[in-house]
Design goal:
317 residues; alpha/beta; 42% helix; globular
């Protein structure tokens, strides 16, 4: 178990991504995935109010609705639910009024009294940051949210948020959700991790498997013929360096009897300030592999080898 920042949220160091619920996993498949995750010791689930508004015929909130139905049906113990605000078609942006309305809508869909971890999904430069910080603090004060967090924020804006919250004596964020994985490292390691270390924040990285590339299933830059919706996103990483990373993951994973994806997630989990990588599963038989990563400890030499092959160079930009 690990703790998220300076909160009292203790979790298995793996977060199940809810972006697929209602998209590539229907309600029944989502229930099976959630059941398997919880049965395997998983207790941290990540979603957002906008999931899955990008799907034709969807309006946003589908993932929260399915998760809420599962919570109501199963009544699982000690589950930590994280969701986000700013991208739902009906609740765009981070004005105080919108943040409050979006949180109330999320609570209704999830069927809970309090959101455990509430993220500002994307920065909103059109709203004074003081207003957003105060709005999040008010949600904590009023019991709608336990802890606050930020996603996709720059290091400078995280510092600014913390300074404003400290000055106002309101809730401080406990986590940051950046795009971070073995093929997307530099900006996080150079700017976000130092801020997280300074202020006691935990990283909960998304795209932990690089749109599926770090499963080892996509080894061509041509996504043609791939049935997965993620194939196009994964194909762009199939550079010589990207394929060298997959080879290293295969070699290291085989020494532990672990898959490429479990090994990639284990590397990410073991990086400074990372509390739990986010990984999703569209099929129930993928869940066990994800859970392996939460308990897989790589050796210093293995970590160093993965660091070496994944270090960015201009030739692979």
């Amino acid at each position: 178990m690990t703790r998220i920042g300076r909160s009292d949220l203790d979790i298995l160091p793996l977060s199940l991504g809810g972006n697929v619920f209602g998209w590539t996993a229907d309600r029944d498949a989502s229930f099976e995935i959630l059941d398997a995750f919880h049965a395997g010791g998983g207790d941290f689930i990540d979603t957002a109010d906008a999931y899955s508004a990008w799907v034709p015929g969807h309006s946003g909130g589908e993932s929260e609705t399915i998760l809420g139905e599962w919570l109501a049906a199963r009544r699982p113990s000690n589950v930590v639910v994280a969701t986000k605000v700013s991208q739902h078609p009906d609740f765009r942006g981070l004005s105080a009024k919108n943040v409050r309305a979006a949180a109330e809508a999320s609570l209704k869909r999830l069927g809970v009294d309090t959101i455990d971890l509430y993220y500002a999904h994307f920065d909103d430069a059109s709203v004074p940051l003081e207003e957003t910080v105060a709005a999040f603090g008010d949600l904590v004060r009023d019991g709608l949210v336990r802890f606050t967090a930020v996603s996709n924020y720059s290091a400078e804006r995280i510092r600014e948020w913390i300074g404003l919250a400290e000055a106002a004596g309101t809730a401080l964020p406990v986590a940051v959700q950046p795009h971070y994985n073995l093929v997307h490292r530099n900006d996080v390691e150079e700017s976000i991790i130092p801020v997280a270390e300074e202020f006691g924040l935990s990283l909960v990285p998304y795209s932990a498997l690089a749109s599926g590339f770090l499963t080892g299933k996509y080894r061509s830059t041509d996504p043609t013929g791939q049935s997965s919706p993620r194939a196009g996103g994964a194909a762009k990483y199939a550079t010589p360096q990207g394929l060298a990373i997959i080879d290293a993951l295969e070699s290291i994973g085989s020494a532990h009897g672990a898959s490429v994806s479990a090994t990639a997630l284990a590397w990410l989990r073991m990086q400074p300030t990372v509390a739990a990588p986010i990984a999703s599963a569209s099929k129930v038989d993928q869940v066990a592999d994800l859970l392996v990563s939460a308990r897989l400890d790589l050796t210093p030499d293995e970590l160093a080898e993965l660091d070496r092959v994944s270090t960015w160079t201009p030739a692979t930009a």
